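INPUT
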Amino acid sequence: MLGVMHLAQLNVAHLRAPMDAPELAAFVELLEPVNTLADTSPGFVWRMKESEDDPTATLTHAYGDHLLVNLSVWESLESLWDYAYRSAHLGVLRRRREWFLRTAEPYLVMWWIPEGRLPTVAEGMRRLERLRDEGPSPEAFTFKESYDSSQAASRPAAADARK
Amino acid sequence: MSEDHLDALALLHDPVRRSLYDVVAASGGEVGRGEAAESAGISRTLAGHHLDKLVEAGLLESGLRPQERRGPGSGRPAKVYRRAGGERSVSLPPRDYQTLASVLAGVVELLGADEEAERAARRAGRRLAGPRGDEPVEAVLRERGYEPYAEGDRLRMRNCPFHALSREQPVLVCSMNLALCQGLLEGLGDDPERARLDPRPGECCVSLSKTNED
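OUTPUT
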């Protein structure tokens, strides 16, 4: 069986203040339009939501306070790239220093998953950890050093079937 | 490798091939043989021959577009051409500014020196505009390789002159590009606020408002 692979991504940001602080008001206001933009972008597959009703609710997790976590799935690296850097989302990224602490560590990790499978925050955090410790690999990579889905080591059988 | 680039670019010395390349590049998308032939003022067969040469050299890419009419007699899918994504450059003697630029962009990112980089880019834009006096910004942008074109009430730009770098450090490079464009406008005695970030897949991240003067 020739398995279609999708791209999972997790990114984290360390907030400068709690979400309800006035410093973050402009950011909170942008959550709904930016998430709607993601949801309607070509190649968007899925994103983990905290709430179906409240678009400003961010993911709750056990990885520390003031840590914003995003987890989503895309059809391809190019579709995620175009959303992140070739849409109005770029303008939000430009303002990241207003809301997030600067970090020298990688804050975004990507990996390939079989179509239809949904990643978990724990899985993404493990992969981010791996990226930080060992550098990019087919199991945990970045835009700058990416691997295509045929190199996804987690599914050697699928990789064989593709070429 | 640069030998290949030189061979590819040398193909454009032929004026017919050059004009076919320009027609395809300026379209911003796919152009059929017939359309390209008509724009270049040559026969369809000759256009096809030269377009295929440009594909062979990697300057263009070709694909097939299904005919609009369906059913018997609608014919085979039409061959279409678009500009290839790769870059070609030749420098004699050999120079490599890309590697250094990439290293420096990485350092700016590491230092979190985006704002300083944007200010420097704005100054660079003003300097570049310096000798151009009162020329319209569109002419200056065209000459700098941005390939501006009008769309609605905006002046958009088809080509990103910093493409490879913007893939590596999109937020930094796009912010610097915006600052550079604003500096250019300022240096030309124009309103820097005409330029704003307006990203779209496959194009430059900046667009300009049209002037109301003309």
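end of record. The first helix of chain A runs from residue 25 to 39.
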